[in-house]
Amino acid sequence: MDILRWSSALISREVETAVSAARTAIEQVHRHPANRRGWPRTAAAASVRAARASAVLDGGSGRLDPRAQAVTDPVLAGALRVAAEIGALVKVWERAPLQALARLHTLAAADIAAPEALGRPRLDRAEVSGRLGQLGAVVVSAKWPAPVTVAVVHGELLALAPFGSCDGVIARGAARLTMITTGLDPHGLSVPEVGHLRAAVAYRRAVVDLVSDRPTAPEQWILNVCAGLVAGAREASSIADAAS
């Protein structure tokens, strides 16, 4: 599969409308009074909610016990480590996305994969290296509208599953990085992970379609991601309201 197959979806009026709706929803979140100066606080809350939702989507737990000294669920622990590192990886993602992906895997799979496998793409599928290279070029060039680029990064990593463990958490972490670096959501206020979790059946069906390379899959995936971005903006608004 060639990453350029995503370009065919851009001629769709429905995609154009969905992209516009996603941008507008996130822009409104950034204009919320609580986010004008207090965005570090709301962004931190969004990051934790994102990690919990992402863990559940990968079969982990979303529960945080305030009385516990450590997170015992390995998927949730990895998702929280990824969330905590997003800010530090922004510059790396912009210039060396494959290095950032390796770091995301090391964080996400630290309690799951063998130490020697951490940060190393799988070797059992010949296309992994080439498709990761194509994806890295997309991240660096950012030639598509920001919500589309977010969708491409997210979808390609889910479909490719380049590490063979924690690929969902990695894909959603990379999508979050892309939201920040493209300027779509520079403070990381939105929580699309929650939107995807609430529509988990449709989300997983769209991933299956991407893996099977159905002709309509790219367009449907972009629409799915844009819907998640809008839902994530609503979640961000609730966080901001609570902080007001």
Instruction: Summarize the amount of helix as a percent range.
Output: 55-70%
The Cα radius of gyration reads: 17 Å
* Strand/helix succession: HHHHHHHHHHH
How large is the count of helical segments?
Answer: 11
Distance between the termini: 47 Å
Instruction: Give the overall average pLDDT.
Output: 94
Which spans have pLDDT < 50 for at least 5 consecutive residues? none
Structural class: mainly alpha
The coarse silhouette is: globular
Counting DSSP E segments of at least 2 residues, the number of strands comes to 0
The major β-sheet equals: none
User: What is the strand content?
Assistant: under 5%
Describe it for me?
This protein has helices at residues 13-30, 33-36, 39-57, 74-95, 97-108, 127-141, 146-160, 167-181, 192-198, 200-211, 217-243. The model has no long low-confidence stretch (mean pLDDT 94). Helix 3 (39-57) packs parallel to helix 9, helix 4 (74-95) runs parallel beside helix 8 and helix 6 (127-141) packs antiparallel against helix 7. The chain starts with 12 loop residues before the first helix and ends with a helix. The chain is 68% helix and 0% strand. By secondary structure, it is mainly alpha-helical. The chain is built from eleven helices and no strands.
